[in-house]
Amino acid sequence: MAGFLIRRLTGLVLTLLAASAVVFLALELLPGDAAQILLGTEVRPDTLAAMRAQLGLDRPAALRYAEWIAGLATGDLGVSQVYHVPVWDMVRDRLAVSLPLAVLAFILSTLLALPFGITAAVKRGRLADTLIMGFAQIGLAVPNFWFGILLILLFAVQLGWVSAGGFPGWEGGVGPALGALFLPALALALSEAAILSRMVRASMLETLGEDYVRTARAKGLSGSRIVVGHALGNAMIPIATLMGLQFAFLVAGAVIIENVFYLPGVGRLLLQAIFERDLVLVRNLVLMLSAFVVALSFLVDMAYGAIDPRLRRAT
């Protein structure tokens, strides 16, 4: 187990370093001068030079990258170039929206995918299986922001049941806050539920074909008891792995949904930072989201390795 853990930790560190290099290089290659964008086109050359020096753009890129990594190692995320606020303070406030949104979307996705996937497996080849997999295919094909627009048109514009966007804040009460997050969470959940339901169906079909399931049927056990008591538990290992990865993607992938519903989350902050060319904020936000995905993937690997000893021996 120690060797398995060391290999996974090494892979995590190398992945984060590679991600940081890609993020930094991508921002360096963007056309235009960040200082020029911040000050405008009618700026004096000496003022522009002073701003470039303040932003560190007059120093070699390799040196700036090394200073950035050294700061990250000590927990220093820097200060926003546009808002002049520590990056962590801005991110911390936005996580109060993004994390509950991801948790709610994860719960809705699970509640939709598990019963539909199990039903499709049990009713394989029948009408229920065809309908469920058909809807799952639609969920895979349609992007989540389009689901969000359709939900706004139906529930906010046509029915008037909810607001079309915005967030009242947690200080206004848990009920109104969760109500504001429900539609964007549902829009995020539909696409993920489509993926997860297909995985549940495939895993359940594989498990239902095992010898111990046929033995249980031969003993006269009821179908529900076979599915819940024998097949589902063994089918959950790959399902749980996908669920863990999906939660990470729900946090990191809500950029467009947060903008569709005008939610003050991390995704909306990232898009604003890109438009305003706030390089410090952009690179730290992107790396933080990448680190969250990589870290959760690492935890899933650890859990999978603890459950299945064959994985530890194979790696």
UniProtKB/TrEMBL annotation:
<dbReference type="Pfam" id="PF00528">
    <property type="entry name" value="BPD_transp_1"/>
</dbReference>
<keyword id="KW-0812">Transmembrane</keyword>
<feature type="transmembrane region" description="Helical">
    <location>
        <begin position="177"/>
        <end position="196"/>
    </location>
</feature>
<comment type="similarity">
    <text>Belongs to the binding-protein-dependent transport system permease family.</text>
</comment>
<keyword id="KW-0472">Membrane</keyword>
<keyword id="KW-1133">Transmembrane helix</keyword>
<dbReference type="InterPro" id="IPR035906">
    <property type="entry name" value="MetI-like_sf"/>
</dbReference>
<dbReference type="InterPro" id="IPR045621">
    <property type="entry name" value="BPD_transp_1_N"/>
</dbReference>
<feature type="transmembrane region" description="Helical">
    <location>
        <begin position="130"/>
        <end position="157"/>
    </location>
</feature>
<feature type="domain" description="ABC transmembrane type-1">
    <location>
        <begin position="95"/>
        <end position="298"/>
    </location>
</feature>
<dbReference type="GO" id="GO:0071916">
    <property type="term" value="F:dipeptide transmembrane transporter activity"/>
</dbReference>
<feature type="transmembrane region" description="Helical">
    <location>
        <begin position="285"/>
        <end position="307"/>
    </location>
</feature>
<keyword id="KW-1003">Cell membrane</keyword>
<dbReference type="InterPro" id="IPR000515">
    <property type="entry name" value="MetI-like"/>
</dbReference>
<protein>
    <submittedName>
        <fullName>ABC transporter permease</fullName>
    </submittedName>
</protein>
<keyword id="KW-0813">Transport</keyword>
<dbReference type="Pfam" id="PF19300">
    <property type="entry name" value="BPD_transp_1_N"/>
</dbReference>
<feature type="transmembrane region" description="Helical">
    <location>
        <begin position="95"/>
        <end position="118"/>
    </location>
</feature>
<dbReference type="GO" id="GO:0005886">
    <property type="term" value="C:plasma membrane"/>
</dbReference>
<feature type="transmembrane region" description="Helical">
    <location>
        <begin position="245"/>
        <end position="265"/>
    </location>
</feature>
